Amino acid sequence: MGQLITKVVNELGHEIVAKINRSTAEYDFVGTKPDICIDFSVPIATVKLCAAAAASKVPILIGTTGLANEDMRKMEDYSKIIPILISPNFSVGVHVLRKLVREATERLPKNFDIEIVEKHHTKKRDAPSGTALSIFDDIKSIRQDSTGVFGRCGKLEYASGSVGMHALRGGDVVGEHDVYFFGPGERLEIAHRATNREIFARGALFVAEKFYKVNVPKLYSLEEVL
Question: Which residue is catalytic, options 119, 120, 177, 192?
């Protein structure tokens, strides 16, 4: 993602003033002072980067997935100093998919069962994907008694209100998400297909153009900015 953002940023008329990667000894914005920091890395690096961003009062946009509860608590602490936006997916299409899922969850009768299936390449480390988890959160915000089930196996009886999340890993799949609403005699499917990772870089920069102007320290969602 860092390489893709580097590729796209010049096309959009922006400038990269600092790069941080595995070989960077110190996470430090002194002397560079960017308008915004964009992070697509791993949780341990994200926490360090937020500390550096907070020290220099630089807002940060985070696309890292797999953040643990402890990491999120640290993000919340830093968000008292700087604006922080965390999103598992910066695709504009996925943003619309989540809106459609919320609407379907609200409008369809409760006897419609819901399942989520996500597919990614073999190098993706976290499962289910951060996007699948955020879709489940959208569902639970409306059906508050929903429970998440990570895969289904064995002979356990199906529990009403359970939402299955299924992760498939194979080849070089960029990212696919399907949400199924199963009702008596009918089925609704809402799907998104990413065929090029560049959409995430362009989406992140599109959001960054809006988010760097935010000056109220807080933990933001993508929906609050778009």
Answer: 120
The domains of the chain, with CATH numbers, are 2-86+198-225 (3.40.50.720), 92-194 (3.30.360.10)
Q: Does the pTM of the predicted model rise above 0.90?
A: no
Beta strands in the chain (DSSP E): 37-39, 60-62, 83-86, 113-120, 147-150, 162-169, 175-183, 186-194, 218-220
Known catalytic residue at 120: yes
Walk along the chain (226 residues) and give the pLDDT tens digit of each residue: 888 998 898 888 899 988 887 666 677 787 788 999 999 988 988 999 999 999 999 999 999 988 999 999 999 999 999 999 999 889 989 999 999 999 999 999 999 999 999 999 999 988 999 999 999 999 999 999 999 999 988 888 889 999 999 999 999 999 999 999 999 999 999 999 999 989 999 999 999 999 999 999 999 998 888 8
Catalytic residue chosen out of the listed positions 124, 166, 210, 218: 124
DSSP 96: H
